[in-house]
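Morning!

As promised:
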Amino acid sequence: MIKFVNVNKRYGDYLALDNITEEVRAGEVVVVCGPSGSGKSTLIRTVNRLEPIQSGRIEVNGQDVQGDRINVNALRSGIGFVFQQFNLFPHLSACENIMLAPVRLRRKDRRQAREQAQALLERVDLAHKADAYPAQLSGGQQQRVAIARALAMEPPVMLFDEPTSALDPEMVGEVLQVMKELAREGMTMICVTHEMGFAREVADRVWFMADGSVLERAAPQQFFQAPEHPRARKFVADIRGA
Amino acid sequence: MLDILERFGLSLLIGQFPHGPLGGIALTLAMSATALVLAFPLAILVALAREATWRPVRRAAAVYVYAVRGIPLLLLIFWAYFVLPLLTGLDAPASVTVVAALVVYQGAYLGEAIRGAIRALPPGQAEAARALGLGYWRTIYWVILPQALFNCLPSIVNQFILLVKDTSLAYIVGAHEATFAATQINAQLLTKPLQVYVILAGIYFLLCYTLSRLSRMLERRVVRRRARPAASQPSFSEASA
């Protein structure tokens, strides 16, 4: 479903992604973790071309995302992306945030789009907040609306960039709950997160990144109990201690 | 002052119209409105061009802004009135050339105000829009401008008010707008400049004050709409029931 082949990304002299070759199969949930600055966010941001790469190849559904003839907007609307800072549009209500892409890109009529948005809000347990503006929602609620917005174009793939890192601790659970349900429904997901509980429960694999490379890939149980790479061992010990 | 208004009120309001060209306050309003309507979209384009990824566009917009900011408005009006007809062979009425000069002038200033508001938005906004697959123009139109223009509404109103007042410079090239009408009245009366120019000041003040109030109303309406209680409307519970 998603393939990285010898992907390199540089900021000047700094190597942000160092020859990454990995694959995510359809329906698989991959959790990416690692110390800050290790390239996790950069990695998933290359998938929908929010970050350009210098060399290598990234495929989504067999499509080369760097290809000359690819429609980058069509590519992006087929990949749901959830940001650490939610990035809801503050001038639009929850419902309108979700409707924006379907109405403007799919030319869906407004009533249909509203119904779909309402259904998505129900899925993230926020049906009663359809008309609330982002400023009137808690962080956890905003992030759930953001997930609903990302689902509105019915993408086969979802990417999560530290979706719970900006949340107060008591709101982390509600967002993870939504993500777990998505995972159980068979969504293909790459999640950059340090939530061990989430990884244990739904991840098929964990990738451990440091200095722009994937140093270890393992089943979550194995990774959190007996990481092999010394850097991974230190990392797991650190997040346990926290 | 009332007798002045009684005697000259009509010519102050519409000039010689319908026996001559439209003038007075009516022309001031017409010039202001036209210049506003044209300068606003130009300013948006200038703001976008200044932030464009393609360097030649950015450069061209910067040259325009720097050039216009470095020239007095009066000189722009002289250029539009005296030089453009020489260069192009077109002969436009004074009011039209002044409107053109005002549009060029305000396009630069208003453009910079709008650009500032665009830059002040969190980069996550454009990024989220791009990640949804909205292209450049859709992102600008549906995500960036609604926020940026609202945030810089006070600066926009500022520039609009300056523009209305700057139409008075048209008097110098002989457009028969309110200031021109007032000087003519003054020339006929000879002894009452204080009264005449108090009236003129009152006219400009009223125009600008009205603009301020209108913008304040608009601002309040938007704020009210966004701050409305978060409870869902009945139509939704019906739809989902």
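Confidence is low (pLDDT under 50) at residues 230-241 of chain B.

Hope this helps with the figure draft.
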